[in-house]
Every structure is written in structure tokens, then in C-alpha cells.
Amino acid sequence: MxxxxxxxxxxxxxxxxxxxxxxxLAAAGVGSRRACEDLIFRRRVTVNGRVAQLGDKxxxxxAVIHVDGERLQADNRLVYVAMNKPRGVVTTMADEKGRNExxxxxxxxxxxxxYHVGRLDADSEGLLLLTNDGTLAHKLMHPSYEVLKxxxxxxxGPIPRxxxxxxxxxxELEDGPVKVDSFKVVDTLGKTAQVELSLHEGRKHIxxxxxxxxxxxxxxxxxxxxxxxxxxxxxxGRIRRLTNAEVAALFKAVGx
Length: 256
What we know:
It is a single chain. The chain starts with 18 loop residues before the first strand and ends with a helix. It is an alpha+beta fold. The longest helix has 10 residues, at 244-253. Helix 1 packs across helix 2. It folds into 3 domains: 19-71, Structural Genomics Hypothetical 15.5 Kd Protein In mrcA-pckA Intergenic Region, Chain A (Roll), CATH 3.10.290.10; 80-143 and 232-254, Pseudouridine synthase I, catalytic domain, N-terminal subdomain (Alpha-Beta Plaits); 148-226, 2-Layer Sandwich (Pseudouridine synthase), CATH 3.30.2350.10. A hairpin with a 2-residue loop joins strand 15 (218-226) and strand 16. The protein contains 7 helices and 17 strands. The strands form 4 sheets. Strands 7, 8, 9, 10, 13, 14, 15, 16 and 17 form a 9-stranded mixed β-sheet that branches. Strands 3-2-5-6 form a 4-stranded antiparallel β-sheet. A two-stranded antiparallel ribbon has the order 1-4. It is elongated.
């Protein structure tokens, strides 16, 4: 098994009840316990909206902790994973039709039971987030939080110069209008082109339907980013745990 096949386990303890704040911060990877005490002393830590003080105790499972204004997830029972979903895999942990599913790739690499945040259809590939943090997952999927999803699509060309303006102005589909937040042509390959577009819509097959409606059906679709989290060089079928900074960026994206 390759080293990046497995989402790394954490040796941080799972707390029950309350613990001193500096101990919780250190266990969450903020720094040494002494460095965390210094952060608290310098009034750079808040707990539930109140500036923390040395000697404070918190329950990591319920406390809302911010360090320098960024949300820290201190509950080690919560897991945040990025996956590069391959084409041909259905976005479910248990497929009744026996098709390739997420569980085939996650297996025992994540000890906790996790759920996918939104979906990618079987013919699409790329970034998928999985977590057992239901509150954050709901916010990431709900359109009111307007978390952008970015896609790289291979489509039929050529691409007219005004296509970006048309997509950003809005296109009427059978279930209502949709518009993209950004659009650019990445490359042209003979009769096909690669385009990148971002939108905060989450309707089923929305990117494929949108591009087909304007005359450029999709032959390949890859999701490259969800909010601040990028697919990067994560290889097809692999998973990795998000860093503390990435989790904080997700909280920031939903205004938490």
C-alpha cells in the first residue's frame, strides 16, 4: 500500500468532559502547550465568543474555539477527508446495484464512519469531501452559503468569445435559471476545448446541463475545488485528511 493511500491517524486523545484550554489547543496541533499558553495570555484565543483566559477549561466536543480569528476544530472525533473520485464510481458508500462505490476506495483507511458532502455523478471525477461533521456538511451543501465549486470541463468547440458573458448573465434551464460566477477557456484541442467554470449551484448534473444548453456538451468533467479546498496533485482514487488550516478555511467559507 502506498503511503498516501491511507488518511493518517491522529494520536491526539479524544476527551470526555472538560480539559484545560492550552492542553486542548496543543492536542489540536496549534503548538506546544507553552506556546498555546502564550496565545491565550496575548488574548488571541476566544471560546464561544469570549476572550479566553489562562486557566479556562473547555469541552472540545462543544466549544467554539477561534485562534487569531480562525475557527479551530478541537473535537478529534470529527474527520475531514478529501478524495479524488475516479470516473465510473458512484457517490455512495453502499450501492445496491453492485457498482463501484466510495467504500471500495476508503475501506479501513478512515476509522470513523464518514459521509460525502454533495455528489459527483458516476461519469464525473475529481474532488469530493467526506466528513462526519454533519453541521459543516449541511452548510457546505446549502445554496444560501454560496460555497463555490470549480470544474474543469472538456467540451465540444469552438468556444465563442461571448460564451463567458452569456453564462455569467444566466441561462434558463427546465428547472430554473442558472449562472456561473466565473468562466475561462483553458485550452483548445482541435474540435474540443477545456474550460474552467465556478458556480455555487448544487442541482443535479447542473454543469453538464448548463453547457449542453448553450451548445457545448461535456465529454469529461473534473471538479477541481470546493470553496478553499483544491484537488491539487491528489491522485485518482486516493484520499487524504484535510489540514487544520484547510478545516479552518472551510469554516470561514460558511461564515463560522
